[in-house]
Structures
1.
Amino acid sequence: MSRLFNVAIVGATGAVGTQMLEILAERNFPVGALRLLASERSEGNFLEFKGEEIMVQTLTAESFVGIDIALFSAGGGISEEFCPIAAAAGAVCIDNSSAWRMDPEVPLVVPEVNPQEIARYVNKRIIANPNCSTIQMVVALKPLHDFSPIRRIVVSTYQAVSGTGQKAIDELRIQTGELLNGRPAECNAYPHQIAFNCLPQIDVFFDNGYTREEMKMVNETRKILGSDAIGLTATAVRVPVFYGHSESVNVEFAGRITVQKARELLAAAPGVELRDDVASQLYPMAVDAAGQDSVYVGRIREDESCAQALNFWVVADNLRKGAATNAVQIAKILAETYL
Ligand SMILES: NC(=O)c1ccc[n+]([C@@H]2O[C@H](COP(=O)([O-])OP(=O)(O)OC[C@H]3O[C@@H](n4cnc5c(N)ncnc54)[C@H](OP(=O)(O)O)[C@@H]3O)[C@@H](O)[C@H]2O)c1
């Protein structure tokens, strides 16, 4: 790529935004001007990009003049309001929030799964990045689904606090220290203590008894894999881990896939790294996935209660592949192919 692209990061000071900055630099994205945007609380702070200190500016309706690509990670309300403004100013928005994901006009993209969807950015000049738990699961499912179509998925997640953002990372650290010193834990980020605990609630409950996070996994997986026929039920759990979401996935296919075949398919799949050797106690773990871009898969077993089903364990860094890496991968394809 010889052309340079003017890039804005909305939510540049946040848990995802700071990863975006790092990944743009690591991947040597052809950045021309870089505009770092956040709330007025951060106005005047500096963030580093490739050795240069760049001042953070307050997000306004004028922030997108001259911007080619706007990476959004400042929450759904901000994306709802400002993506159309950025698009009208000529930018293409890659949005990490849930604001646009289920809009039929907006492509919902995981580059290893449905990169062809990026072409539909022309509809609204918005491309949606899926939910972090969905991204890592569909990267692992895609090669298996291509071999034998998925009928039904049962997934339980073990999600890190960084999925909630910087305030929850701080809360786990502070609560752990307080409790170890015999002092009470103060709860702000979650309705209950997260240190030394597991919370079977991520986001709000709907009338059907599922949480919004669980229903995101259902709806987004179907949209990305392009099949409303896939049955899916999810239980999303917050665990006291800083970085890296883990998932126990049970999948029933139209035909049988042996463990050996699944290993072959996953070993050859883009974005996947197999960690599957129980004799050596080798399996994916959040501590190993943190800071990495791959989706790690292991503990692959045939479901002995169902002839055409497999169980496996999937782990990825939620801030990287679950958010920032996926967005930068989309930006790269967009820049190389469409802009
Ligand atoms: N964390 C994850 O694993 C993950 C994964 C996928 C998607 N996402 C999505 O990414 C988004 C950000 O998540 P995060 O974890 O990075 O949250 P975070 O750490 O809380 O960061 C939020 C960012 O948004 C900015 N912001 C807040 N209010 C604003 C306003 N009124 N105007 C402009 N900027 C504002 C904040 O700026 P200040 O510093 O100035 O407050 C900060 O930069 C959310 O939509 C989230 O759902 C997160």
2.
Amino acid sequence: MYCNHRAEHATPPTRSSYPLDGSSPGHKWIKSLTNDRAGQFTGGRWSSLNLSSVLYTERIDDKKYVELSVWSAPGRSKPTFEEAMRNKFKPAKKGDHFGPSWTNHWWKVKLHVPTAWTKYERVQFEFDPSCEAMIFDVHGTPLQGITGGWGGERRVEHIIPPAAVKAGIYEIVIESSCNGLFGVGDSIEPPNNNRWFGLWTADIVVPNMEAWRLMLDYNTLRQLSDNLPGNSPTQNHALVLQNKIMNTFRNDDPSTIAQCRKIAEEILGEGWESKGADIYDKNVDALIYGIGYCHIDTAWLWPYSVTQQKVARSWTTQVDLMNRYPEHRFTCSSAQQFKWLEQLYPAGFKAVKDKVLAGKFHPVGGAWVEHDGNMPSGEALIRQNLLGQRYFQSRFGVRCVTAWLPDSFGLSGALPQIFRLCGMKARNFFTQKLSWNNVNVFPHTTFNWTGIDGTQVLCHMTPVDTYNAQATFGDVRRGITNHKNLESSNTALLVFGNGDGGGGPLPNMLDSLRRIRAAANQTPDVPVVHMGTSVEDFYADIERDTNYGETLPTWHGELYLEFHRGTYTSHGSIKRGNRKSEILLREVEYVATMASLHGKDYEYPYDRINECWEKVCLNQFHDVLPGSAIGMVYEDAEKLYGEVARDGKQLFKEAVSAYMGNLIPIASVMEEQLALSNGKLVAFNTVHHARREVVEIPLKGPSATRLRKEVVQISKDGTRAYALMDGDDNAGGLLQAKGLSILAMQKGDDEFILTNSNISMTIKGGRITSLYDMILQRELLIKGMTGGLVIFDDRPNYWDAWDVEIFHLETREPLSFSKVTLAESGPVRAALRAELKLPKSTVKVTISLDATPATFQPNSRSLIRFDAEVDWHERHRFLKFELPLNIRAHDAYYETQFGHVSRPTHKNTTWDAAKFEVCCHKYCDISEFGYGVAFLNDCKYGASADGQFMRLSLLRAATAPDAEQDQGKHEFSWAVLPHATHFMQSDVPIAAQFFNSPLHVMYAPESGPLRLALPTVHKSPFSVEGAPNVVLETVKRGEDDTKKKLTRVVLRIFEAYGGHASATLRVASHLSIDRAYTTNLLEEKISALETSTHEATGDTLIKLDLHAFQILTVRLTISKVEMPS
Ligand SMILES: [Zn+2]
């Protein structure tokens, strides 16, 4: 045998002194050649000779040893373990193919392990179906996931327990699923729904564990020489050692492996391996905190049902790793994912729960899902956390203290306040996505993030620039070299592990980190990485080091992502579903609260309401609501919105009936062809502000004659009527008089004018040529310019559904209505119908103006309403509505959660220019001293102010990852609302609430069991007075009232303009208040509120002081409920 001698030859004898004789032919080290050579120790052209040739000692796949049988579930069905086991399995073999995409296949695997193999350190089964799979024991307990294929995330090995090796027999069950990590498409292209997958590996294998360990040693040395500066001692040393290892290794001499590993100890430290997890000496200060993570997008290039499998596979895999690596800690977010595991994989959930309770598996984030950070309403963001935190508390007895949105496409400035109020301790925040900015580099790594109201959280954006780190030395070192404010904080979070079906950290990541730490214990060139701690430990360390944030830089306002700006508009259906559901649930909660107080035998339907909220929150996931998922996801999402609409409407109907008796929704009168007896029209107003509006009444069926008596205007075609719903007790006949001035008229062939006493709009040649304030006699459009619809080419550089790029603005093309007709002309509603034809699409818009102003605010103007029906078949085109406004302002205002954000109208700097397309909620506005114009909308989220052009983004048409994005029918509405004040004194926010929560028109028969007195427009018993900047939005029952047998009402109040307020909450006298508290968003008491009684009315008055954009939750305990007078 060659064996030991060679190694002795390779290393010359050690000298004891400097020799006299200088005959050595030593040469200058050609470092680049050594470096190239060192890259050849594993794989590559020398793989039959290098380390790769000795990684396996045994491998068998003969069916004598590996017995396989399979059952394929029909279609895309996803049976449970028990259901699958009831079927007939048929024999299968390596090389068989399975498909098509999204199908599930169950395997029974019986392994016969040769008796001689008990001598080996490890025997494993390798199963590679080239797709994702889950291994169960024969009783149905999930053991671990499989990630097939040849990518870096490959995980196909399953360790056969030693007892089974000894017994010589081992049985398992596997479910393989025909999709990969990123679904079944090519990158972000639409899915290939006919992909088939081959069973490439089903082998019993004995790995040469020492050879694998040498590979890890060597890789660490390689990473050191690749990533450290070239003139550093450790970099050169690492390269020299690689060279030495290559000289020492012989693939025909197993003993050289140990010699090679000994060489690696020159950098890793002598005997480092025997320390095991104790290598992480806690007495040394850490620079890098490692935490395992698995970013499982709740839906993206695959549907929700596939995510459920990914979760179960990934998390059970991590439980297994925790049993093998004591230092391993794993964090994951999303209560929804835990709930799926609990419902669908109870045994897997139990294993996870045990690790949570043992402090190793760390729930983080506190939210229902990792939601979009821009578009959910304020109340929805609260529910994300309320549902999430309550779930974590109920299952694990813990609440999350670190908010976690690593991948959301920008983060609203309302979030810090919401985070801090969702659990008293929540003050940490982790994110990462801003490293994707395509214009400016975000300047901080660790900083105080202060929201629009002044609340701050401690924010860390990992300088590793990924939440899928591979735990290499390069990742670890980037935690320092890419850190943007080392002067104030020198630590970083290393969030490592493969997401989306990669199963989280691989064992070799944990092995590598031990080696990197071992090296750090030897040399200061290697940053100290620490394991075995939590994300919270990391933040606590920052707090200590920075005097609780004092020495950190601060970022004020939103964290705007300079990327993915198309996501405010992509997939109109999901945006509409989101807005309509949020509004519906707000209405349901208010009416259900009132019904629960007044209604006999009516119980507040917590579970049914929260089921709806869970669906809405789920669809707010950061690839669903933004419109960046595949088409299948939107089929699921629309189904969920359909359920919310159905259940919400039913809940609303039940609650109205319990609250107010036999009111008949006007829609039901038509749908059910009801014959009405005498009675009157009333309107249920769910907004806690008085209002007066024109409503539309359909006139069909047996009740048309009866209803005609209740209306003031019949439509030209006789199918509809308009009635005035007046919620001002003192208005008298004022409105009738004003209403007479409203008009729609035609001048010549192509000029149409809508006008009332305060506003007028002219359309000429199919374009809006004038928007005129009749009272101030002021033209609001820039002279010589026109407004209307406009279309742009929309061809982003790569991320199709995600991105619209600044250059799209260069392709602006104004569109003209080809046909305009008069539709209604007073006395309370005037309207035009306008049509526009594009090469492949049709846009029909009804433009209307009512006699009433938008609100009761003095000087309020009427809004001009646009109701659009679009049949959309463009590709890569972007439709917007724009007006060139004769208003000068450096900033425009856009509604965000519980307030607004101002953004530049100019492009002075690259930071300003980057905000060429931004997110808005129900309104956006451009104002100068004394005047402004707002756009309101009912389901759109993209807007911009490009100089004096204000634009609302309406429809896009990307083709990846959904080839059919936005193709087909759309309905949406927007309005133009001029106001004769600056935005700050305007009625825009409340008008936007009205626009989104239309009055519910009902018919109240004279006879029948009416419970309550009925004014024309229902008036809420809760109102805020004395501060026009304070809005009461949500009214609901206390979360635990039923359990605690309490009668509590929770009110969400906020300051909407950005200033202080001293307001009074008035509660009508028929509700007696026992106690009043302010609470956090989890409805836990903060402080008591003083109540007083209004002498004349007996109403309860509660004084509230608020600061700019403050969210105030008030909890009232009701002691007695009487009938309102
Ligand atoms: Zn994501």
